[in-house]
UniProtKB/TrEMBL annotation:
Residues 9-203 form the NAD-dependent epimerase/dehydratase domain. It comes from the Bacteria. InterPro entries: Epimerase_deHydtase, NAD(P)-bd_dom_sf. Coiled coil: none annotated. This is NAD-dependent epimerase.
Length: 298
């Protein structure tokens, strides 16, 4: 029986664990709190992934080490290198294949459609932190691949849409969004991201390079409208947060100061090309209404 270790306990980690377990494969989930889904083939362990010796011990004998973990948003430049070095070291010492969940910040501001072979040209601290994680892993000699997802949506998602739009739309309240309301933007469903992680782990062609999780592309206003229609909620009321708004909010919470780096340029669509994922890994995007339906039925 195959076995795997997943570092992280969020929606992507939990969905990945369940996909593997439902295929009869053993999974050990590692997080500081020991969280994760309840399944007889999923073992949940509370541990600090920056403790390389402990992580290596927990990874011994596993076929694959997955990571979906990330430090607090405003601590990425300081803490990502530490976490990444521990994960990479544990994969090397345990002899496990290494599958990373990343995002799109490392590309920096580019014109789409963005392909996974684009250079990692970010200049901001979060984008460079993400780029460094991949560059060091790719040069390490470890059998490694990375799945890069766009902004998450769907059941359990933790993102700008889920936090600042979804609840407000369902409750008929004004949504204030740090994103242009009518410019096309790609979104990755949690389930599609997990399926891509699993598919990449099982395909020898996947290793040594990065892949894009499937996406659906529509404006945030359109996505909010689809959610409202499905829920029978009022037409969404939305306003864009300006850079000045974000600057003022940064005095109350460090998260807001970090948004400036990742805002797309005015009027520029943010579109992802995931055609290789569909062709080679066999994973396609779930229809938007099906993803939103999972949110409403949760």
């Amino acid at each position: 029986m195959k076995s795997h270790v997943i570092v992280g306990r969020g929606a992507a980690a939990s969905k990945t664990a369940l996909l593997l377990a439902e295929d009869g494969e053993r999974v050990r989930m590692i997080s500081r709190t020991g969280g994760g889904p309840d399944h007889p083939l999923v073992d949940r362990v509370a541990a600090d992934a920056t403790d390389t010796d402990r992580l290596t011990e927990l990874t011994e004998g596993a076929d694959t080490l997955f990571t979906t973990a990330a430090p607090p948003y405003h601590r990425w430049p300081e803490q990502f290198p530490v976490l990444s070095a521990s994960l990479l070291g544990a994969a090397r010492r345990a002899g496990a294949a290494y599958v990373m969940l990343g995002n799109l910040y490392a590309y920096g501001p580019v014109s789409g459609p963005i392909r996974p072979d684009f250079p990692l040209a970010a200049t901001g601290p979060k984008g460079r932190a993400r780029a460094r994680v991949w560059e060091e892993a790719a040069a390490s000699g470890v059998k490694v691949t990375e799945v890069r997802a766009a902004q998450f949506y769907g059941a359990g998602a933790f993102s700008v849409f889920s936090l600042m739009v979804q609840r407000q739309v369902l409750e008929g309240r004004l949504a204030l969004v740090p994103q242009e309301l009518d410019v096309p933007h790609s979104y990755s469903a949690i389930g599609d991201t997990a399926r891509t992680l699993v598919a990449a782990s099982r395909n020898e062609q996947a290793y040594g390079r990065a892949w894009h999780a499937p996406t659906s592309t529509l404006s945030v206003r359109e996505l909010a409208g689809r959610l409202a229609d499905l829920a029978g909620a009022p037409e969404p009321r939305m306003e864009e947060l300006t850079e000045r708004d974000l600057t003022l909010l940064a005095f109350t919470e460090p998260f807001w100061a970090e948004m400036h780096e990742v805002l797309t340029k005015p009027g520029r669509p943010f579109v992802i090309d995931y055609s290789e994922t569909e062709k080679i890994l066999g994973v396609s995007a779930t229809p938007v209404d099906d993803v939103l339906g999972e949110v409403l039925n949760r």
